Amino acid sequence: MAGFTGEHVGEPRVIITLVGPPLLHVDFKFVRASDFAERTEDPEILRDRDGLLAQTWLTGPQSLNVAGPQNMSQNREK
Fold first, then answer.
1. CA separation for the pair 10, 51 (Å, rounded)
2. pLDDT for 12-67, tens place per residue?
3. What is the reported pTM?
4. Torsion of CA 68, 72, 73, 75, to 10 degrees
5. What letter would DSSP give residue 8?
6. Cα–Cα distance between 15 and 54 in angstroms, integer?
7. CB of 15 within 8 A of CB of 39?
8. String of b and e for 31-48 (b: at least 16 CB within 10 Å)?
């Protein structure tokens, strides 16, 4: 396992990890509950003890960042 912060990509709240074998890339992003409604991606919630994040996710705006090859080419054109 190896890990480092995401400061080099402008996101210090991210811990980038590589685990394996087989090699797997996993990013952990740490945010305050009050910041969760305004997001650039729709993450997987790994732990939500009191359901606050899930509730905020339902009431917040949907992410506009959709992964996939077609979206990657559209983002390069912008």
1. 29
2. 889 999 998 899 998 888 888 777 777 777 778 888 888 888 888 777 666 655 55
3. 0.57
4. 140
5. G
6. 22
7. no
8. eeeeebeebeeeeeeeee
Look up residue 27 and give its two tokens: 């990013």
Containing 35, the helix (H) or strand (E) segment is none
- Tell me the residue ranges of DSSP E strands in the chain: 2-6, 11-19, 24-29
Helices (H) and strands (E) in the chain — how many of each? 2, 3
Residue closest to 41 by CA, chosen among 65, 18, 19, 60: 65
**Structure token pair of residue 12:** 């210090």
Single-letter amino acid, residue 45: I
